[in-house]
From TrEMBL, chains A, B:
This is 3-methylmercaptopropionyl-CoA dehydrogenase. It catalyses: 3-(methylsulfanyl)propanoyl-CoA + oxidized [electron-transfer flavoprotein] + H(+) = 3-(methylsulfanyl)acryloyl-CoA + reduced [electron-transfer flavoprotein]. GO terms for molecular function: flavin adenine dinucleotide binding; oxidoreductase activity, acting on the CH-CH group of donors. Involved in the assimilation of dimethylsulphoniopropionate (DMSP), an important compound in the fixation of carbon in marine phytoplankton, by mediating the conversion of 3-(methylthio)propanoyl-CoA (MMPA-CoA) to 3-(methylthio)acryloyl-CoA (MTA-CoA). SUPFAM superfamilies: Acyl-CoA dehydrogenase C-terminal domain-like, Acyl-CoA dehydrogenase NM domain-like. Its cofactor is FAD.
Length: 593, 593
């Protein structure tokens, strides 16, 4: 496996030259207090050191060892405890948490870069702190002051971690039918009883306590998703003075044996009259949990990006070192018995596909991160609302498209190595296995697509799509320089997106109940490819007027050209498939499958 | 994991109604002696019982246990020995081998069905007999009568297995630079010295002997691929009387730890002056090995098909059993708290994509199998030549397209199960891991594409493409019935393939040395999708006039419609990418990656 090298130059280019985030921060009081361009750079440098030197080298050993489970106790792989302690000591667990509870209060646009590094270094390990960060947000947004005071400081400090208990054996996507019960007690607490599965970090040995956020139903709760409440259920009860009290009745019953992320403990959690406290309003738990989910979803998207970035390091290294076959006559290294793989067109196609997904994806996650910051911190309500609309639209796209392209990229990164990509030694196969889960959990990518086309686009009668298309069209209305072909093609594609969206909305209005879920995945990909097209042009133009080294500027422009020539055409396959609608899928009787 | 059920009905439909192979056999003396429609059916029934009941149930346990390696010895997973013994006893190892050496001498079009079953049941296990079958063919075609007499009967009987020793640490795709040496001895044998890696079944405990086919260089061999010879090197030397003699100097030095196919021993083989015998002419070893490779390549393609077929069994089962969410109002099962997954459009999209790849792929492998039989057994030389041309063209397509679509299908089959697809229990993740290697070994799919567009299409100045396109066009010139839209679209696509092929050939003639390898993978996919389009129409029309149950006929027609509406449009994304050519890929300097 090649050493993991963070692409700091590209991250700084995005923050400074493409999205000018420091200027943005100046307009947002809460952020201008804690961060400016210089501190941002220093933080990224530190994060790169931490992930490259401390975490990344343990990736394969941790996968080989995996977690150990015995009698309800989880032992994490060698090195994880020390890694987590260092993470906590550096304040990295609370990187986006409010300063009130000891957090750094950094903008998401910055933590998105740090998250990419963590996911590239070891995504299984990153989940312990990543879910904690999500739980912190959910508590900070919805819990009572007393609960916040009791839990947040230790979570932010990385002394305790958080977990997210949603799924039950019979209820994954469909949370409306969960059965875990919460019975009110005299003292204002609740007794929780039920079984939760697929609980990441539900049990482990990294910290002295684990704070579970649990969805459950009150005795009088209405059926469906409007009858779900959110509870905080600590592994150890917390005394008035903040010290740890007795063990709560929540125990890991078993752990899953998975395709990948072997260092992450995925637990069955049994709640057997466990003591918990209500977070937020009764029966409003799903909304509260979605605060956390929405934060996590960009983070899960970034898992795809991180895996791809790591895979690229090894694939490029291998393509430069490994010699097989011969390139074009003029370029042959006749002193050697063969040329480096990089001379071959198909190797270049694979590497550049990866590169266009990685850098396009990094630009995308940075853009969405910037909107998340604006939605929270922008000075004007109008600014916050506008950004929130983009966040609402793009969160499912970020989760699904970053992981779908991330998975494709890691598979290509494995393919570049041939047989060496299939053996564990080189690490490429692990990235494929680790990356695969990101297309599944936190709402499968099919569910993300349904969220995008159903709840967001159709739910707003197309209104929510407009801010994105306006952003792209406004850019395209500017001077095209030497990019008039690409500007022209993308402008037509924006119109095509509008046209196809209109067609789908018409079918919805005509009562086709199946149309949305029948074309949603292709639709999400269409939006993804068009958005990356815009971002690649944005990057190419920003590079033109930057003072980066010529090779960096050239690489950006050439990759943009590559993206338009070789990747973007995929939309011409997607569009007819969307236009075909639901008909062919629902022509089938059950016994015809 | 759902039970594996062989789709015998579809196999019989292809053999009888779509390709009428029994009629074909009647015209081929060698085949008409051994097989007719009734024996073929009986053989498929037996094969289905064997694979469903004996082999398929051990799939996951064998993966979990994997092989054991110690001191040069490999122990295979529990059950493999008994399975292999039963396979050998039933004559299944020599299913296509000549009767002269005890084989069944069955046509490939039939063994292709059996191979699909084996690959679906346990591809790792299937490799031990699959490589033996390939080695049998290579020996039968190229070895001296004495060598054949010495090795073939025991190999055909499954008493000994075969291996294929090509790759070396520095030489995988590029076999021209191998270093293993063969020094001639006084007695006409050779001493082989060198290291081979990635040797499937290089060592194991299933049989008393292993017959290695080894590529090596004679002392005076010219450089490159024209200086490679083929040798047979047994693990135990074979005495004149056929009994086993002393241990040969070939030892497994280690085994690989891989992403999947854990039941298959992938060995580093050290030849330390091992005794071997030349197979065929000196320096013509690569051609001889390609006899085996070409046989294997369809077999490796079928690995993708088998994995997909197995994955579909579980995915469909799960989609029928698992209840989450609600379908369209009229179809809701209001007595239950949720509807089966099958009501959801995106679940249908995933299942039907799988189905269209599996049945389309089965038709494709059957078609290629039929041509392999004709190329060998057709009564007239013209018939053999015509079939051979199709085999030459379609072998790389079969290997790469069946495994690329097979991998996509297994990934979808995993996605249908959500989180349950990621845990080992359900078996879907294993199929993804096991299937992945088929895109890599026996020539990566990139190399297959290069073979198709470079050696076959460009190498024949486009001539070799004609028999396929003629076959399709002739079909399309027939009565379209109610399929005139599909016939019309496909006819235009055939013209597009011709046009794009012409463009590529022009660039080759103009001296672009990089064009072939820059667009070959997309080109192979284009050929694959168009060919599947033709096969789907062929199946739909054959079903129309068959007397199968209405649900079978309907399913074939509806899947054909689905394929044209939702899958075939992918060609509209591929074509512009091919037309973009090599330019964007070769604009990059090394430091711009």
């Amino acid at each position: 496996m090649a050493d993991y090298k963070v692409d700091l130059q590209d991250m700084n280019f995005l923050l400074d030259d493409v999205f000018a985030v420091a200027k943005d921060w100046e307009t947002m009081p809460k952020l201008s207090e804690v961060v400016d361009a210089d501190t941002a750079k220093a933080i990224l440098d530190e994060a790169a050191k931490l992930t490259e030197n401390l975490i990344a080298p343990n990736l394969r050993a941790a996968d080989e060892e995996g977690i150990h489970f015995s009698d309800g106790e989880v032992t994490t792989p060698k090195g994880y405890k020390e890694q987590f302690a260092e993470l906590a000591a550096g304040g990295w667990v609370g990187v986006t948490a409010s300063e009130e509870f000891g957090g750094m209060g950094l903008p998401k646009v910055l933590s998105a870069q740090y998250e990419e590094m963590m996911c590239a270094a070891d995504v299984a390990f990153s989940l312990y702190s990543g879910l904690t960060a999500g739980a912190i947000i959910a508590l900070d947004s919805h819990a009572s002051p007393e609960l916040k005071e009791r839990y947040l400081p230790n979570m932010v400090a990385g002394k305790w971690t958080g977990s997210m208990c949603l799924t039950e054996p019979h209820a994954g996507t469909d949370l409306g039918i969960i059965r875990t019960k919460a019975e009110p007690e005299q003292d204002g607490s609740y007794q929780l009883t039920g079984t939760k599965i697929f609980i990441t970090g539900g049990e482990h040995d990294l910290t002295e306590n684990i704070v579970h956020l649990v969805l459950a139903k009150l005795p009088d709760a209405p059926a469906g998703t409007r009858g779900i409440s959110l509870f905080v259920v600590p592994k150890f009860l917390v005394n008035e003075d903040g010290s740890l009290g007795e063990r709560n009745a929540v125990v890991a019953g078993s752990v899953e044996h998975k395709m990948g992320i072997h260092g992450s403990a995925t637990c069955v959690m049994n709640f057997d009259g466990a003591k918990g406290w209500l977070v937020g309003e009764p029966n409003r738990g799903l909304a509260a949990m979605f605060t956390m989910m929405n934060y996590e979803r960009l983070g899960v998207g970034i898992q795809g990006l991180g895996a791809a970035a790591r895979s690229y390091c090894t694939a490029l290294d291998y393509a430069l070192e490994r010699r097989q076959g011969r390139g074009a006559k003029a370029t042959r290294d006749t002193a050697a018995e063969a040329d480096p793989l990089l001379v071959h067109g198909d190797i270049r196609r694979m590497l550049l596909t990866m590169k266009s997904f990685i850098e396009g994806g990094r630009a995308f996650s940075t853009f969405v991160g910037k909107q998340l910051d604006r939605s929270k911190y922008a000075a004007s309500e109008e600014g916050r609302t506008k950004a929130q609309a983009l966040v609402d639209l793009l969160t499912p796209v970020a989760k699904a498209f970053l992981t779908d392209t991330g998975f494709e990229a890691t598979v290509l990164g494995q393919q570049v190595l041939g047989g060496h990509g299939y053996v564990r030694e080189w690490g490429q196969e692990q990235l494929v296995r680790d990356c695969r889960i990101a297309q599944i959990y936190e709402g499968t990518n099919g569910i993300q697509a349904l969220d995008l086309l159903g709840r967001k686009v159709a739910g707003s009668k197309g209104e929510l799509l407009k801010p994105l298309l306006t952003e792209i069209s406004t850019f395209l209305a500017g001077d095209a320089g030497e990019w008039s072909n690409e500007y022209g093609e993308l402008a037509i594609l924006v119109q095509e997106v509008e046209r196809i969206t209109g067609e789908v909305l018409t079918q919805v209005m005509q009562g086709d109940e199946n149309i949305i879920n029948s074309v949603a995945v292709e639709y999400l990909h269409l939006i993804g490819y068009v958005t990356y097209g815009w971002l690649w042009l944005k990057m190419a133009r920003a590079a033109e007027s930057s003072d980066y080294a010529e090779s960096f500027v050239q690489a950006k422009q050439k990759t943009a050209k590559f993206y338009f020539a070789r990747i973007l055409p995929r939309v011409y396959g997607l569009m007819p498939s969307i236009e075909a609608g639901a008909k062919e899928l629902f022509a089938f009787e059950q016994d015809e499958f």
